[in-house]
Amino acid sequence: MDNNVIYGINGPVVTVKNTDSFEMMEMVHVGEENLVGEVIRITDELTTIQVYEETTGLKPGDPVTGTGAPMNVLLGPGIIDNIFDGIERPLKAIEAQKGAFISRGASVSSLDPDRRWTVSMKIKVGDRLEGGQVYATLPETPIIEHRVMLHPDLSGVVKEVRKDGEYRVFDTVAVIEDDLGEKHNLTLCQQWPIRTARPVRQQLAPTIPLITGQRIMDTLFPIAKGGAAAIPGGFGTGKTMNQHQLAKWCDADIIVYVGCGERGNEMSQVLDEFSELIDPKSNRPMTDRTVLIANTSNMPVAAREASIYTGITLAEYYRDMGYHVAMMADSTSRWAEALREISGRLEEMPAEEGFPAYLPSRLAEFYERGGRADVLGGGEGSVTLIGAVSPQGSDFSEPVTQNTKRFTRVFWALDKALAYARHYPAINWINSYSEYFNDLDPWYRENLGEEFIEYRNRISALLQEESSLMEIVKLIGADVLPDDQKLVIETARAVRVGFLQQNAFHPEDTYVPLEKQKLMMKVILHLHNRAREVVAREIPISKIIALGLFDKLAKMKYDIPNNRLDMFDDYLAEIDEKLDALLQ
Amino acid sequence: MIIDYVGVKEINGSLIVMDGVKGVSNEEIVDIKLENGTSRQGRVVQIEGERIVVQVFEGTRRISLKNTRTRLTGHPMEMPLSPEIVGRVLDGAGRPIDGLGEIFPVKKMNINGTPINPVSRVYPRNYINTGISTIDTLMTLIRGQKLPIFSGSGMSHNDLAVQIVRQAKISGADYNNFGVVFAAMGVQKDVAEYFRKSFEESGVLSRVVMLLNLSNDPIIERTLTPRCALTIAEYLAFELDMHILVIMTDMTAYAEALREFSSSKGEIPGRKGYPGYLYSDLASLYERAGMIKGRNGSVTQIPILTMPNDDITHPIPDLTGYITEGQIVLDRALQGQGVYPPVSVLPSLSRLMKDGIGEGYTRADHQPLANQLFASYAKVIDARALASVIGEEELSPIDKKYIEFGRLFEARFVNQGFTENRSIEQSLDLGWELLSTLPRAELDRVDDAVLDAYYKG
Hints:
The complex is a heterodimer.
Chain A lengths: L3 E7 L2 E5 L8 E5 L4 E8 L3 E6 L11 E8 L1 E4 L7 E2 L6 H8 L18 E5 L6 E2 L4 E8 L2 E6 L6 E6 L3 E3 L6 E4 L5 E4 L3 E4 L8 E3 L10 H6 L7 E5 L6 H11 L4 E7 L3 H13 L1 E2 L4 E2 L4 E6 L5 H20 L3 E7 L1 H14 L13 H9 L3 E4 L5 E10 L9 H9 L2 E2 L4 H5 L12 E2 L2 H12 L1 H27 L6 H18 L13 H23 L4 H6 L2 H6 L1 H4 L7 H17 L1
Parallel strand pairs in A: 8-23, 19-26, 19-27, 20-23, 20-24, 24-26
Antiparallel strand pairs in A: 1-2, 1-6, 2-5, 3-4, 3-6, 4-5, 7-17, 9-11, 9-14, 10-13, 11-12, 13-15, 15-16, 18-25, 21-22, 25-26, 27-28
Chain B lengths: L3 E3 L3 E3 L2 E4 L9 E7 L4 E10 L2 E6 L11 E9 L1 E4 L7 E3 L15 E4 L16 E2 L4 H6 L2 E2 L6 E3 L5 H11 L10 E10 L1 H13 L6 E7 L4 H21 L3 E7 L1 H14 L13 H9 L11 E9 L8 H9 L2 E4 L2 H5 L12 E2 L2 H4 L9 H25 L6 H18 L9 H12 L12 H7 L3
Parallel strand pairs in B: 9-15, 13-17, 13-18, 14-15, 14-16, 16-17
Antiparallel strand pairs in B: 1-7, 2-3, 3-6, 4-5, 4-7, 5-6, 8-10, 11-12, 18-19
Helix pairs in contact in B: 2-3, 4-5, 6-7, 10-11, 10-12, 11-12
């Protein structure tokens, strides 16, 4: 082993001179306090290392030791319901060791080494195990069964198996012998390099939607399980709010929430809210299915870069157990900025806006790790990726937004004007799109009937038509429009206020089942159709508006509880009754 | 063994390069003695073997290649702290300039601070009553929040900051634990004096720590000023359980100092020449606001920044907005109409308000009222846009009602005297009074039950 020492220091980057003992992307320990770092460039003269902690106080001559392995995370029980920093160090354990402020060199195990788990073994001596196969299970939280899998690179014949019982993470529960005759002890955990995608048997087409209970997302711009979505928006447009809503209500089994370079108070809000919020499906706190990764904006920048990879590796691990995982990354722009910052320290030639030229390929690598797949252990799992993007100056033409658009298929564009008018979620229905609609079409038809798609298309057409009419209204006012066009504007208003706007703080409105979404569309379109008949008879539209039906529909989201869908029939009847009266 | 290094190798802007230096640590502070007997301080910003780059806080004027003797201090920049620091006036690097002598330190803390562990944070919920209608009703300030004021040169942000400090009310028992840390970065001396006088007149001066880096002071010192201020604030809040409001003005001057330093160091610039790490750097300041479990104190920040050319997409307001929990935006057109404070309601926002208002904090109707005011005022803007094309006369009756509402809203709700302190009830009632000029059917953000109670149209 060479005695390698620090030569130079520049911000989070340190260099080592004249050594050939490191590998690219190898994890290293730097300084007396064993700070964690990663090798990012090697020349015959200098090896460059990015350090995941504050470098204040490091000295030339301090030791640098290699670990011989790339940047790894530890995968095993105890991940769910935990909160980690960007390199999978549990923040609660750091708090216990270092207090309320995070100082350097905390040495804590990612998973609690003393906690005992009730393990049931799924194999017997003589079985042949392939990589990814489940050999033990244990209840990780009351709703999540943790399936302990063989490391994907291993296979062999089971030689020894312990009895079912209580074991700790690093206890050996079985021994296998591989084809070369070498024995391996199996524990409840495994290591995996964060920058390498975990293998699957086969990728599957994105044909099942991720149900979010958010009307504009489920109906107009749906995302598939295993899909990738981008939420771009300037500050104050509600990116984080949308991510929180998705994390709370989407029908994934497990949520990995990565707070990447965001606010500390926001993370404490997530912690508070998720532990108080009860998941209606399981009657358990949301934290029972959630992993948080918090790298707030003032924590070291290199760890921010790693946090996205840590998050996706944890997500893939649970996918391999056969779960549907949704990962929220808030925000990928901060991650891109971390890349830019490190790239600048390395004096690399910048491309657009100072971002490194490899930004698109890094983004592609990340989003390609999502997907629905047949997993190695058998069964099906998925990782859905939802990345928030914070465009500089709310300008969607900047490199991070543009490149993210290329690798995601849903684009929920947040709009400042809508946010200023407090129209939430502030998703602009003209600029947003979902490419999954055709893939998901059969699912919607099968599960919600043919009408759902029809309603959806008509709502979408009405909004488009309104948008072009508004161009005229802006110039000459609404009064000059003919009544049938005024009706379009009136109905579109009911759609915007009554349907697209959704109140995250209202107990009934925060999550809306698909069936109710469908009936809401049905009622609005019914009113529109009947009103069209009236207008065709040259009865002035003001008489229809005076009936107050449009205002009533704008409030039906609050007035009709999610478990009283029969009330929609009363609405339909009332519309018919009042408009019939007008027609006579 | 203490070694003096004689002379330097290179001088560039505020940086000096030295060779043959042994045993130096990153971010270490060095003392530089000039031949004429004066001394300066500097900080190690880059190390390459025995060659180091030092940033000189007071600037490099009169330094030559051989007239200095430099000594390593062995520690990073620290701030001497004691309870007696309250009421003192310090320079931009935290040294007393009020002639009352040195601060006898009870404790020394690294001015760079350390990040608060997210699991140790308390989610801020307690609101601060500022007595200003727009802020209290529509963008409520919460203890532990960072809420910047986005302003422009020549607008009344300083008056607003003074009014907030004077009127800010913290509930009963904690009142005596309230303090202000005021950090001036690159401001003119009359502005600093204005703040000092205002604090004195309102009787809070004895609770204020002032740090002054005036516009002609060295720029490197400017990059230290907010760090010293926040270190003091953290000490007072988390060691002495005080509630500290930190006012930092002007963040634009701070960011420009950072850019100047970055370019002299030869770093690759990001947007508009600002260094690529501007976001991380600003975050290392703003994120020091908050509350911690098990401690009574809090650090609340009101950074003030002047948007160059009133452009909210400029990197400084843009990055600030992404870090802070909302913003108060001032508007030149309103200022021109004589409205004080010229708060532009629609782009302003407080992200933390939703959990710190309503039943038990302010009043149950607060949130719906705020939603409705925002929505209705947004329609005023639409109606005005239309009126500017087709003329006010041609507007539909309902649009005319909105125009009238907008006029009243700006004249009575937004506009309020510099000395007028409105209670939260007064502000909320005024909001309902104005909304009542609109037809009830237009108020689509409010439940019927709330309308029954408060709508008077």
